[in-house]
Amino acid sequence: MLGRALLLGLLVVAANALGSPALSQTTKENTSHALEKMRGSWGGEMGNIDVGDGVLLNDMQIEVQRGSLRAIVTMNLTASKLKNIRIVINADYLNGRIDRESARFDKVPWRRTVPSTGQRDNIEGNPLVLRIVDGKLNGVFEGDDGMKFTLAKLTRRK
Does an H or E element contain 141, and which? Predict the structure, then answer.
């Protein structure tokens, strides 16, 4: 006789193979709900944390847009070892996909600008994963040089 857990597992596999409307609808609703909670502007001061080699993260903003899943990232940094030179990083993450309650974005180049010199170039970026936890946007730039962060929702002033 089949074990209860195995039997339930087989029923779920069979329902998925038959395209069960109830399961598909639930998945669509969860995906839509997760995406809706994520949309908007997130950001704030990052406490000048050292992200490596004396580069300090001053503040960060992420705009998660409607339509196709897109995240626009802006980071303001200071190179403390180079006479506190300001650096701005911009990244445009397109075509994200929902994986359960997380949004996943493939690696894109980051555009680095040094306002004081006008220097602009592309540097290697990292894949991005976003998720809502306790009303805040938790994220991680994945990879060996990756970084975790938490951002609050920004409110618009009237």
Answer: strand 136-141
